[in-house]
Amino acid sequence: MLVIGHADVEHLLGGGNERVLDLVRAAYRRHDAGESAVPHSVFLRFPGDDVNRVIGLPAYLGGERPVAGMKWIASFPGNPASGLERASAGILLNSMNTGHPVALIEGARISAKRTAASAAVAAQALVGEPPSGAALIGCGVINFEVFRFLTTVFPGLAELTVFDTDPARAARFAERCSENGLKVRIADTIGDAMAAHSLTSIATTATTPHLDLSRCRPGAVVLHVSLRDLTAEAILGARNVVDDADHVCRERTSLHLAEQQVGHRDFIDAPIGALLRGTATLTRDPAEVLVFSPFGLGALDMALAAHVHDEAVRQGRGARFDGFLPGPWESTEGTA
Predict the structure, then answer these.
(1) Cα–Cα distance between 33 and 21 in angstroms, integer?
(2) Are residues 54 and 103 in the same domain?
(3) H or E stretch covering 197
(4) Rounded to an integer, what distance in angstroms lies between the CA atom of residue 76 and that of residue 193?
(5) Does 329 score more than 80 pLDDT?
(6) Contact, 231 vs 284, CB < 8 A?
(7) Is the pLDDT of residue 218 over 80?
(8) pTM higher than 0.85, yes or no?
């Protein structure tokens, strides 16, 4: 068993934004082509606790380097007040030959990067002219990674508008982003942030819808990463792209609530994998707002985890733990 901790994951993924984007694009295409298996994620909640949860995402991704495993990720929104990150995770990879567990990988950084990279991949595929600015609503780990990946796919990005319900967090976030040479403004209200640019990323800890799209610019693209901010009416009034309709229309996401309201999913226009493969097209009215809502497929985690594992083996990183499983044994059954 190879154990790959946080520092090694950071090293193996740090500075490799283009590689991560390529892995995410390929995973989306393979998922759309039927080369993946992504059972519904399992949500572990606790009696009397409506805030904290642990989610299990099993997945298989085919291709030249098949991989299977499980991400087990906890979300405890109160952690930042104690100086801890909201999310913590482990990813267990299984051998495709024996089924044996072969690696345990720190997964929160992988999860953040695949989430942000998926948003950037969608933005690149869905916007028209490359934007000169973007709005980030929710000043946490995910949107900082979104910022980094957006500057990779849109190198001309020069302005940011940020908003958070915690002004101090917004100020710290803005300072970090401005270190990259961008002009960063802190919006007074969430509506002001929505109106500031034609591209917006929403990554908050909201559990119930609180936001419409009335302040968006005509033709804006909204990366609805946190899935539960927009009202059902906002979803129904927009064009919608998802990663997988069966996954995103559950667990009281905004799209799930929209489906419950109208009794169908016809408001979903296309999956991102089909758009990337060219098996679906999306014709837009220039005034329509387009929302991308990714549930977060475990296949993306597997793609990045396999890359981290293979690079760790190649570079001699991680800690090997022998004796986790029993060794080979000879059958004691007799032969006739």
Answers:
(1) 18
(2) yes
(3) none
(4) 26
(5) no
(6) no
(7) yes
(8) yes
> Could you identify the residue written with the tokens 């099993």?
58
- Two tokens at 84? 């801890």
Per-residue pLDDT reduced to its tens digit, 46-69:
999 988 999 999 999 999 999 999
Q: Are residues 191 and 168 in the same domain?
A: yes
256 is written with which tokens? 């799930």
Give, in order, the Cα–Cα distances in Å from 34 to each of 93, 145, 307: 21, 29, 21
C-alpha span between 297 and 61 (Å, rounded): 10
- What is the reported pLDDT for 331? 52
Whether residue 160 is found in the same domain as residue 35? no
End-to-end CA gap in the chain:
37
67-75 and 49-61 as β-strands: parallel, antiparallel, unpaired?
A: antiparallel
Domain-embedded: residue 325: no
Residue 162 CA to residue 187 CA, distance in Å, equals: 6
Instruction: Tell me the sheet residues that pair with 270.
Output: 241
The 10s digit of each residue's pLDDT in 122-140 is 999 999 889 999 999 999 9
Sheet-wide strand order for 239-242: 183-186, 159-163, 133-137, 199-202, 221-224, 290-293, 239-242, 268-271
3-state secondary structure of 22: helix
72-113 residue pLDDT tens: 999 998 898 888 888 899 999 999 999 999 999 999 999 999
- What pLDDT is recorded for position 85? 86
Whether residues 148 and 240 fall in one domain: yes
- Tokens standing for 87? 């999310």
Q: Are residues 228 and 198 in the same domain?
A: yes
> Cβ distance 93 to 102 under 8 Å?
yes
Q: Please check whether residue 329 lies inside any domain of the structure.
A: no
The pair phi, psi for residue 230, each rounded to 5°, is: -85, 140
Can you tell me which residue has the tokens 């995410």? 24
Q: Is residue 334 part of a domain?
A: no
Residue 193 to residues 20, 161, 188, 210, Cα–Cα distance (Å) = 28, 6, 8, 15
